[in-house]
Amino acid sequence: MYSKPILLLLFLLPSVLCFAQEEDLLKQIDNDSVTKEWAAPAFKSTRVIMSHSVEVLPAGVLDFRILHRFGNINQGISQFFGLDESTIRLGLDYGISNKLTVGLGRGSYKKELDAFVKYKLLQQATGLKASPVSVALVGGTTLFTTGFTDPTRENLFSSRMAYYAQVIAARRFNNLISLQIMPTLLHRNLVATNNDANDLFAAGFGGRVKLSNRISLTVDYYLVANQNENLNVHNPLSVGVDIETGGHVFQLHFTNAVGMNERVFLTETGNDWGKGQIQFGFNISRTFQLKKKKI
Amino acid sequence: MMKMKMIIVVVLLATFAANAQDKYFTKTGKIEFFSKATLEDIEAKNKTVASILDTKSGAMQFSVLMKGFEFEKARMQEHFNENYVESDKFPKAEFKGTVVNNAAINYTRDGVHNVRVKGKLTIHGVTKNVETAGTIKIAGGKIETTSTFNILLSDYKVKIPSVVSNKVSNSIKITVDCKLEPLKA
Fold first, then answer.
1. Strands B126-139 and A61-72
2. Spatial CB neighbours of B175, under 8 Å, sequence gap ≥ 6
3. Interface pTM (ipTM) of the complex?
């Protein structure tokens, strides 16, 4: 007689199990593991501080950028710690597609124009066939419009120009830290002396530490390999804070680089951090969505 | 002994019934939300909602990847994920609940039913009890579930900085529309 209740229990058990399973019905249709998920942006802006970040603009977005550098802080109170003087670069960048961004700008230093094309080759992701890093390619050109240092020689229009190319590889390691490296080649059509190489090679580093959802610490630096050592030129280093408020990103920073395009900051950074020759500066990025995405 | 056999048969039947075709699901359900503020209207759509309905028990569940929400403005999408719902920390929003008046619905016959759904909604890692009205439409062996309801971002600890308080509303209107098909076990 004992066997019967046990038998009954055996049959009852499956139905009880079925009931227990219903706690998480979604598991029955779950297939999250096979989907590819894009990583969040490694940087808030398309620039780390002075250099290009790995990020490009989304399609249809116009980015108006105001870059501002004051004078050297170590000039003291008479120059109001450098705030009396300033250089500026105004620029417009536009996202042609989600991968391709183009930009134009003009800096007050040497009244120099610059333009670039930037293409996002790879986007970091997790999941199936995911790349662990993001990669972007940048090609740009600069053109100064002030007079030549030596007007007696034959100066061509092309003598005003320089070109640069960069490969940017970046990884957002987690919610806190993003790092990027950017090997860079700069070609100048005209150099001052025979000791100055027309082709300069530089290794760039950029990083970010997020302090909160809207505020992060940033740093970028270039190590120029074959700089003319007779010149008083230093490697450019900038450290700053990114503050994001809706459509704006404010990048407040300290830097020894006067110029705001690749040619100037790689070849004409005469200031030395070690001597306190640094400036306060800010970049303001204001984005406008010109073309809305259909959802 | 006869009685015992009968009981066994009934229990067996009940077991089979529980496994039988009474679950319906989708992975391409739609959820939209709408925020109306003084300066800006914000709208986002997600077309990859996973949802399952057990017509027998009335259990109803939804799961949605926050990164799957699409916005008209790319920056909004970025801010939504990074600053507001923190998608890296809380990748999914989930609802687990039941259809309160499930017993009154005949799923074998075509028709539209007004229902009340009650359960737990998890957004941004915060779980709240919610209850809302919706409809269940049965047509040709398929089930469509729809509902519109409001939530408060403050309930789910989604912070809105004061500088954008006239651009992002604390009250968000959510519309759910899922076309469910039979789940083959």
1. unpaired
2. B30, B31, B32, B33, B34, B146, B147, B148
3. 0.73
Flag whether residue A22 sits within 8 Å of chain B, measured between CB atoms: yes
Give the best residue of B13, B15, B19, B46 to mutate against chain A (max A CB count within 10 A).
B15
% of chain B at pLDDT higher than 90: 72
Q: Residue type for A17, please? A: L
Instruction: Tell whether A295 lies on the interface with B, counting CB pairs under 8 A.
Output: yes
pLDDT of residue A27: 82
State which amino acid sits at residue B64.
V
d(CA B124, CA B93): 7
Summarised one tens digit per residue, pLDDT across range B55-98 is 999 999 999 999 999 999 888 999 999 889 999 899 999 999 99
Question: With contacts defined as CB-CB under 8 Å, which chain A residues touch B12?
Answer: 11
> By CA distance, what is A212's nearest residue in B?
B83
Report the chain B residue with the minimal C-alpha distance to residue A248. Answer: B75
Q: Is residue B56 less than 8 Å (CB to CB) from chain A? A: no
Residue with more model confidence, A44 or A7: A44
Taking chain A, what is the end-to-end CA distance rounded to the nearest angstrom? 68
